[in-house]
Write a structure and sequence with these properties.
This protein has 380 residues and is α+β, with helices and mostly antiparallel strands. It has three domains: 137 residues, 2-Layer Sandwich (Dna Ligase, domain 1); 82 residues, no CATH class; 150 residues, no CATH class. Helix content is 41%, strand content 11%. It contains 15 helices and ten strands. Helix 5 crosses helix 6. It is elongated, with a radius of gyration of 29 Å. The N terminus is likely disordered.
């Protein structure tokens, strides 16, 4: 959550547009409130203030007696300074004057930590009371919504519909219009994998479009951080293909230290004859069956006629199969160096995974896993 550094400059363009007749002490507030934004805070030129007060015969700034009435929703926006916030409050009739609020802010050290977001206040409040509401982060009006890593679009939409005031139909309608939510061209209109898993703050004025845009924007941040497009060119794939690799990595690796090795196994299988280009990833087959990606496969399951059946079709599936997180995207863009073409998770509790290029050793790893299932776990 961003903090607002209160740059107490009252002469900005918005303030001039809404200027009212000022009292003497209000002018003093303008003189005093010449701050410089420094690391999210401000420092004011306070030297000699008391002397100035003593020398000038000034009336107090207009202020309401309170206690206030009704309800009004006010937004503090990114980049707002004290006068911006004061003008907003004055225009909503929360406070009587800009000067009263800036004076209260000068006297309250917590005013440097006002956070971006929405706050519920009352009309005709004393300026100091309004400031007390804003400096308390507990008064932010927002909902926290968490999308776990590895979820599919269908699961994400269900969570969005259950945690917001909008229906699955409203979200799905937008997802069929990818240009409206900012999907990259290489997603080919398919949002699978591009609704980034994270915890989001949902403001009270959110819409289905703004929520989905926020999720895609967060994906863009992760992709840029991993150098996705540059890595795709370096590795000889498209960015969309790297996103598919990232989704497979997310499905296959539980530990961050294994993700980069799993990515290497996928590329090695694609680029060598060790498995004839077959990835043989169970999660992709389960995606074809439209079910939990962690379900064990039967021989019958492997017969499904689908481009996501990586036991029958060489190469990558046509799209991502779930939403990868930061580490999976990073792993797809920066795979480890190694000759491995096989891996087996031998301990489901710890996530321990062993890698090899030798088929016989791979078979021994499988036996180790079977022994673990027989003696230590009922979850195999």
């Amino acid at each position: 959550m961003s903090d607002i550094g209160l740059d107490l400059e009252v002469g900005d363009r918005r303030h001039r547009r809404h200027r009212r007749k000022r009292s003497g002490l209000g002018c003093l507030a303008v003189i005093v409130a010449l701050g410089i934004l420094v690391g999210g805070g401000y420092f004011a030129a306070t030297t000699g203030i008391e002397a100035i007060k003593d020398r000038l015969d000034l009336d107090p700034a207009a202020d309401y007696d309170g206690p206030g009435k009704g309800k009004v929703l006010v937004e503090v926006q990114e980049g707002d300074n004290a006068s911006d916030i004061a003008v907003t409050l004055r225009d909503e009739d929360v406070i009587a004057s800009v000067e009263a609020f800036t004076e209260a802010a000068m006297q309250n050290p917590d005013s440097t930590g006002i956070q971006v977001g929405f706050y519920q206040l009352q009309r005709q409040m004393p300026a100091a009371d309004a400031l007390e509401v804003l400096v308390d982060p507990g008064n932010l009006i927002q909902s926290a919504l968490t999308i776990p890593e590895g979820w599919r679009v269908e699961q994400i939409v269900e969570r969005l519909a259950s945690e917001t005031d909008f229906s699955k139909r409203q979200y799905n309608r937008l997802l069929r219009q990818p240009g409206k939510i900012g999907l990259p061209n290489y997603a080919n209109g398919n949002p699978e994998g591009y609704l980034f898993p994270a915890t989001y703050s949902i403001p009270p004025n959110a819409t289905p479009r703004s929520i989905l845009e926020q999720m895609v924007a967060r994906w863009r941040t992760a992709a840029a951080g991993a150098g996705l497009e540059e890595a795709a060119e370096r590795l000889g794939y498209t960015p969309g293909e790297l996103m598919t690799v990232a989704s497979l990595v997310e499905a296959e690796a539980n530990r961050d230290e294994d993700r980069f090795k799993v990515a290497r196994v996928i590329y090695n299988r694609l680029e060598t004859d060790a498995t004839n280009g077959l990835l043989q990833i169970d999660a992709a087959v389960n995606y074809a069956h439209d079910r939990d990606l962690g379900v064990g496969l039967t021989l019958e399951d492997l017969e499904i006629d689908s481009p996501y059946n990586t036991y029958k079709n060489p190469g990558l599936p046509p799209t991502p199969i779930e939403a990868p997180g930061d580490k999976a995207i990073e792993a797809a863009a920066n795979p480890a160096d190694g000759p491995w073409v096989y891996y087996v998770t031998v301990n489901l509790r710890t996530g321990e995974t062993k890698f090899t290029e030798d088929y016989d050793e791979f078979l021994r790893f499988k036996e180790e896993f079977k022994e673990y299932c027989a003696t230590e776990s009922d979850n195999c």
